[in-house]
UniProtKB/TrEMBL annotation:
Pfam family membership, one: A_deaminase
Annotated coiled-coil segments of the chain: none
Binding, substrate: 43, 45, 203
Record's protein name: Adenosine deaminase
Binding site for Zn(2+): 41, 43, 230, 322
EC numbers on record: 3.5.4.4
Organism: Streptomyces aidingensis
Amino acid sequence: MRIYARRRRVGGVSDSHQPHAGTAHVPTPDQILRAPKVLLHDHLDGGLRPATVAELAREQGYDRLPETDPERLGAWFREAADSGSLERYLETFAHTCAVMQTREALFRVAAECVRDLAADGVVYAEVRYAPEQHLTRGLTLEQVVEAVNDGFREGERLAARDGHRIRAGALLTAMRHAARSREIAELANSYRDQGVVGFDIAGAEAGYPPTRHLDAFEYLKRENNHFTIHAGEAFGLPSIWQALQWCGADRLGHGVRIIDDIGTDADGRVRLGRLAAYVRDKRVPLEMCPTSNLQTGAAASYAEHPIGLLSRLRFRVTVNTDNRLMSGTSMTREFEHLVEAFQYTLEDLQWFTVNAMKSAFIPFDERLAMINDVIKPGYAGLRSEWLFAAAQGNLT
Ligand SMILES: O=c1[nH]cnc2c1ncn2[C@H]1C[C@H](O)[C@@H](CO)O1
Ligand SMILES: [Zn+2]
């Protein structure tokens, strides 16, 4: 086994949050795959296998797919989503939603989603979708939720059979251009002990501020329920400010534009504006999705992605996939990109993972058990492999 070691770089995430003397461990792709990972921001209708999209389309007589060969179809989704604009990116979902209109299709897509995440080393996931987008062939909102929940349970069962332990919860999304958010919030609340762990709003951000859905958020707060809001992706600080201070979001979907409230003074010291300071002080979780942000133009490159600075400043950063199909990504791939851009170590990846687990919408004792019984032992195991190899002189 060949393992890589390096001196800790000043300015990496780890220097600020995990004192770790001597060499630090740069994980290999195989170790990243095997590391336990937690995913809080992943869209069900953005994560289908290309072969499943093609097969469902064929079965259902949907003839508008731009390609029918799975490989070419996968490439088409990635390229079409690579437009530099959130609005254009979102157009690709018409095809995935079109084939997710029956109980069987929703069940299958949900089960495959959980199996794919488990095979990628994800141990806990919150997967979101908009029930209102799955009603064109006669399903009710409740039937949609039940089909997905049943699919998630089946995915967990099959993953366990394959030796992967994973737990998946659903987040119900309301589309921000539509007017069903209160209804979807009530739906989320009525399924909260049956597989639905929270609520979200998504869709085009510019022109659709979070306060448009205040009624839904105030209802959920009165019910002591949890919600996240896509904010600060295609629109800037006002969107983040509204999501937090008017709507009371528990987490921010993306939140990358919080960087606009961070500057440097004449001495080169980093200065946080009031909103950025609030986000950091209150430990507001940021659901960051690097590849998706590159595609929609929210960041120029991995190396320039605000995740580097925000992690160094110890915001509560989490790493996510957003849409695995449109981005051709996985949690392992997202971590790989960050390791390459920022030379993150295994300790850094554990930090992102623990941040995510702390920020999940399941009860505190269950989050703690995941951290202590699954995440920490998983990373410790990878570290001891590395120490063993080091002792054998296999480090390069
Ligand atoms: O990154 C995103 N920003 C805003 N909306 C998004 C993003 N990714 C997916 N969506 C939309 C398109 C889906 O149809 C919907 C529900 O999953 O959420
Ligand atoms: Zn998203």
